[in-house]
Design brief:
This protein is an alpha/beta fold. Strands 1, 2, 3, 4, 5, 8, 9, 10, 11 and 12 form a ten-stranded mixed beta sheet that branches. The chain has a two-stranded antiparallel ribbon with strand order 6-7. α7 links the parallel β10 and β11. The longest helix has 25 residues. It is globular and about 55 Å long.
Length: about 325
């Protein structure tokens, strides 16, 4: 299996001036001229953008293409990796306005609401445009038309990862997931035969139904809202998993830089509350909801470098 790896600049919607930079690492077969359906799509939402730090580690782990390659090394060669950078920055601060409409000018969400399902809708649109751009690039280089190849029943899973402020998009997706309608096993099988081959999810429903892992990676904000703490949302999500007979694994990856910051104690408090809510629901539905909490660099003093090093050090298994 070959891979195409690079950085794309694509619109969120056609005929719009909103463009996103996305680092991608995609499975394809040069011999059969086909894009192969991956086992999973690992979608990573990046955080604020630091420039001129002079720190080679931070610079390396801020590179979208390098992050995509790290994701492939962690999740396996059969996955597609997508690293999404916010389209708007206020200085260094990422603003995911298309995904979280309530965000202020600093990218800090005022609330998480499922109305309109903005994050899942935007994610599907962006991935579809990224995939088309990859096809165009490969076709131009090979002077051949690339198609998709796989079983009709081979629909990839979705892993969502949020780094730093990118964790706010995870909160929005969790909210939308909790309020979305579950699918029965029979209706899922019918939709598979009708939708055909999917390299990436093509509807917000298919995206939400395919999510099996959520990774919070050293998430933090300068205000409240770094982690979702609405018990109603978590209860709805738990009930949805039971009704659909599917499972999701939540991973919390943290460093002293965020979890031990005495000036922003709400980060640790919010994380602890979310973990508690999830673990409480997990005791009700067993294997449908699993929670993992991992602390890195515990023996080091907090600094900005460890905040980026966690991307390379995190254990996703």
């Amino acid at each position: 299996m070959d891979r195409w790896t690079g950085i794309l600049k694509v619109p969120l919607h056609q005929n719009t001036g909103t463009f996103y930079r996305v680092g991608a690492s995609i499975c394809f077969s040069s011999s059969s001229r086909t894009l192969t359906v991956p086992s999973a799509n690992a979608i990573f939402f990046n955080g604020d953008h630091l420039e001129g730090t002079g720190n080679l580690v931070i610079e390396k782990l801020s590179d979208l293409q390098n992050i995509a390659e790290i994701l492939v090394s962690k999740f396996g060669s059969s996955v597609n990796a997508w690293v999404i950078q916010a389209s708007v920055f206020n200085g260094p601060f990422a603003v995911y306005k298309d995904f979280i409409p309530s965000s202020n000018s600093w990218g800090e969400p005022k609330s998480y609401t499922p109305i309109g399902f903005p994050a899942s809708t935007a994610t599907v649109s962006l991935l579809s445009n990224c995939l088309q751009e990859v096809k165009n690039i490969i076709s131009r280089r090979q002077k051949e038309s690339y198609t998709a190849s796989a079983s009709f029943f081979n629909h990839p899973k979705t892993f969502i990862l949020g780094f730093s402020k990118g964790g706010t998009v995870l909160n929005q997706l969790v909210t939308e997931l909790g309020f979305s309608e579950p699918k029965s096993m029979m209706s899922r099988e019918v939709s598979m035969t009708q939708e055909g081959i999917q390299i990436v999810p093509t509807t917000k429903e298919s995206l939400l139904n395919s999510i099996t892992e959520l990774h919070y990676i050293d998430v933090g904000l300068n205000t409240a809202g770094a982690y979702i703490t609405d018990g109603n949302v978590i209860e709805k999500l738990s009930n949805r998993l039971i009704a659909q007979d599917t499972g999701i694994r939540f991973f919390f990856h943290g460093t002293p830089r965020q979890w031990c910051d005495e000036r922003r104690v709400w980060i640790r408090n919010e994380k602890d509350k979310l973990v508690h809510l999830l673990e409480s629901e997990s005791r009700k539905n067993g294997a449908n909801l699993q929670v993992y909490e991992r602390f890195y660099f515990a023996d080091r003093r907090p600094d900005m470098q460890m905040h980026f090093e966690i991307i390379e050090s995190m254990n996703v298994s």
